[in-house]
Design a protein that fits this description.
The chain is mainly α. It folds into two domains: about 20-110, 434 Repressor (Amino-terminal Domain); about 125-165. Helices cover about 60% and strands about 0% of the residues. The chain is built from eight helices and no strands. Helix 5 (about 65-80) runs antiparallel to helix 6 and helix 7 (about 125-145) crosses helix 8 (about 160-165). The longest helix has 21 residues, at about 125-145. The termini are far apart.
């Protein structure tokens, strides 16, 4: 009995003496709940390779920015850990993350009043949809004129009146 207590005390002191980061903390929580990496992978829809990279803190093998923060936050929620504490720990390890729109603060919002304007990042404009809508409206208008659904007084051009016959 005394040996078990001594063994447990030595394990606890070894755990406290080792500086831990996000990865080892999440691994320890997962193992304490006796959950396999395969179960976590299936539940969170992240690959086993990504889970191993996070637990081993191989940051180059993981997505950066908001994706990494979301991954850590979801993993912490799944393990019933404090997501904010994990994100704070992540920020202290790798620094505040940069998104395409600005720096992300601990709460997950944009820091420093960064605007969501993408600026010169090549924003795609949906001009094609406008063309489709305009063509559809024109076809519908000509169909309505041809069917006689539009009053004669609305047809101010002679060529519109000629469409009716």
């Amino acid at each position: 009995m005394t040996e078990e207590i001594m063994k447990q005390d030595s394990l606890e002191s070894a755990m406290l003496s080792q500086p831990e980061g996000v990865g080892p903390t999440l691994r320890r929580l997962r193992e304490a709940r006796q959950i396999s990496q395969a179960e976590v992978s299936m539940r969170l829809k992240f690959s086993k390779r990504q889970l191993e990279a996070l637990e081993n803190e191989q940051w180059d093998d993981l997505p950066q920015g908001i994706s990494l923060r979301g991954f850590v936050k979801n993993y912490a929620r799944y393990l019933d850990a404090d997501p904010d504490a994990m994100l704070t720990m992540l920020d202290s390890q790798i620094g505040p993350q940069q998104s395409a729109f600005g720096t992300v603060d601990r709460a997950g919002g944009l820091a420093g009043g960064a605007s969501l304007d993408a600026g010169d990042e090549g924003v795609r404009r949906p001009w094609g949809w406008w063309v489709v809508i305009v063509v559809f409206v024109l076809v519908a208008a000509f169909y309505a004129i041809k069917r006689g659904w539009v009053p004669e007084s609305w047809l101010i051009f002679d060529w519109l009146r000629s469409l009716r016959s």
